């Protein structure tokens, strides 16, 4: 559900962008983005407070940051996105491929994709993806002004990537305990909080470098229970 709505919102945003090309001031986009950042902050706080094991949150975030920084996940993704856009861009004009790559880089790369899809798959809760869909629609409006109709094709990427994560997480859900799922979502919510702070302009977290933290509750919670059993 969440992935389908997100893809539809990208298409709607592209359509609006084609109708009002160059007609919406950047300051309006910045203000709306900051407002959505505040929403992400609230959702992140709400989700993180669901944790019943704060130590899992602390250790997962710390270990995730170490792994993410060591691998340079954020930097690698940014370089790949820039490389793809440069490869397909043509001086003086835009094409479908350029718009598709630009849209895919924006809509399908980031912690919001992972966190929202995991919540949708593990808990059946599409709230984060629905919030992302609004942000993507607004972004598509302004991106279309620069790259044209090709941005709308990125809806395919959204559907495939988010849908794939949702399906995979649903397959995992039966073998994960409710406690582990709760902690995974709580860690993901902390990443959502960090993203919200970035969107509001308050911070510049390299959020993708924290994404390995989502894996650690699967390892740490059983160890914690075994140690204190």
UniProtKB/TrEMBL annotation:
* Keyword annotations: Membrane, Transmembrane, Transmembrane helix
Q: Which domain of life is it from?
A: Bacteria
Q: Do you know which Pfam families this protein is assigned to?
A: DUF554
Any idea what this protein is called? DUF554 domain-containing protein
From which residue to which does the signal peptide run? Answer: none
> What residue ranges are annotated as transmembrane?
6-24, 94-118, 138-168, 180-201, 207-228
List the PANTHER family: INNER MEMBRANE PROTEIN (PTHR36111:SF2), INNER MEMBRANE PROTEIN-RELATED (PTHR36111)
């Amino acid at each position: 559900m969440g992935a389908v709505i997100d893809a539809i919102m990208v298409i709607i945003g592209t359509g609006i962008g084609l109708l009002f090309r160059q007609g919406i001031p950047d300051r309006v986009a910045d203000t709306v983005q900051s407002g959505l950042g505040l929403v992400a902050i609230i959702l992140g706080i709400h989700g993180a407070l669901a944790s019943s094991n704060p130590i899992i949150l602390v250790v997962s975030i710390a270990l995730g940051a170490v792994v993410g920084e060591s691998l340079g996940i954020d930097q690698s993704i940014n370089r790949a996105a820039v490389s793809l856009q440069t490869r397909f861009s043509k001086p003086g004009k835009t094409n479908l491929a350029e718009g598709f790559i630009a849209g895919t880089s924006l809509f399908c790369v980031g912690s919001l994709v992972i966190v929202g899809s995991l919540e949708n798959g593990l808990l059946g809760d599409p709230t984060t993806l629905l919030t992302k869909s609004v942000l993507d629609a607004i972004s598509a409006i302004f991106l279309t002004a620069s790259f044209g109709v090709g941005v709308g094709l990125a809806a395919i990427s959204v559907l495939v990537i988010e849908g794939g994560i949702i399906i995979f997480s649903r397959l995992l859900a039966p073998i994960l305990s409710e406690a582990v799922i709760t902690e995974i979502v709580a860690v993901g919510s902390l990443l959502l909080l960090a993203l919200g702070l970035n969107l509001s302009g308050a911070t510049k977290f390299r959020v993708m470098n924290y994404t390995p933290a989502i894996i650690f509750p699967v390892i740490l919670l059983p160890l914690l229970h075994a140690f204190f059993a």
